[in-house]
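so i finally got all the pieces together for this one. its two components total, 422 residues if u count the protein bits. some of the lines might not be protein, just check the labels. i wanna see the whole assembly predicted at once instead of chain by chain like last time, that was a mess tbh
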Amino acid sequence: MTISKTKPKAGPKAKPPRVRLDVDERRAQLLELGIAAFGARAYDDVSLDELAQSAGVSKGLVFHYFGSKRDFYVAGLRESARRLLASTLAESVAEPLVSLRRGLDQYLRYVKAHGAAYRALFQGGIGSDPEVAAVVEETRQAFLGQILNRLGDKLARHPPPLVRTSLRGWVGAVEAASLDWVAHDDLPAAEVRELLVELLVATMTRLAGVI
Amino acid sequence: MTISKTKPKAGPKAKPPRVRLDVDERRAQLLELGIAAFGARAYDDVSLDELAQSAGVSKGLVFHYFGSKRDFYVAGLRESARRLLASTLAESVAEPLVSLRRGLDQYLRYVKAHGAAYRALFQGGIGSDPEVAAVVEETRQAFLGQILNRLGDKLARHPPPLVRTSLRGWVGAVEAASLDWVAHDDLPAAEVRELLVELLVATMTRLAGVI
């Protein structure tokens, strides 16, 4: 074995060594990088060239796994929404208000961490893509489902119109307040959380006669 | 003068007579037809050919006044938002809760009358056009301004962060609940209105310490 006399170049131009991963591991690694990249920047500012380089693979391999930039984004969004729902669901075994607070804390942490991406999602841009809009809508429905499930199986399956419209309204308040909060960044998360808790309590109090 | 022996054709194929209107009148007439057409149907389903025909003018004249179909839509949306704001503003001289109820009634009537267009506006589609999104955002701001103005000049000019985020949240609840209501059409408007009143009262009660 001969030892090269030139040291490998360091710095931003250096390519990371290509490591062999099996198919699932590689896909998971790329998805993780995609979630981080699309979460940190607006869709149009994410470069698949840079992303592939940082994973030590070719851009072609990203396309091989995910089809297109848009499909890659949608796959990351789906996984990201799945994790968010799983984290808020894990809280739902606790006492209702405790679990609501923890769930909202998780949500606001998510919004904060994905600021630019969250805004793009709800303010046109990539959010107007029909498939992306469908993922957002499914996530909302799943969120509502989690709240309704706590109120009982029958209610979750057939919510009365006023219950459905009221809870959709509350989810709208959560989204709008989060967008405003992340755009201005001038309030502690706990104040936003308590505001949203109070709105849901007021909504539930109003629904007490219907449920 | 000779009298034609053939009666003018009636029925859907008959062209309305071309009537000379001055520039402002013609523009106002076309804008009115545009607001009605874009309010009743989704953007892509509005035919400028039919619209021009019903006004007894050429499609070219519509383009002459408004530039393009999209610009025509934006002009109609602007005028429509201006009227909505004017109608809710007119209510703001009354006692706060009375004027809130009347304002919400006006809003829900508007949503009901423009069902398809309202949904398209907030669920991707034409709503993702940057200029359209800007009109929606300006209308939201003006709405918030009307509420804040009732709380005093200083507050309207520099709302504390929690006041701003809370009221944005409430406007989000109004939009989301309205969308759900108009999509399902299974609740009296008054129930939706009372739900939204209660949410604003809960929000204001919470803000009492800040204002």
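Chain A touches chain B at residues 123-125, 127-130, 133, 161-162, 164-166, 168-177, 179-181, 184, 186-187, 191-192, 195-196, 198-199, 201-203, 206 (CB under 8 Å).
The radius of gyration of chain A is 21 Å.
anyway lmk what u think
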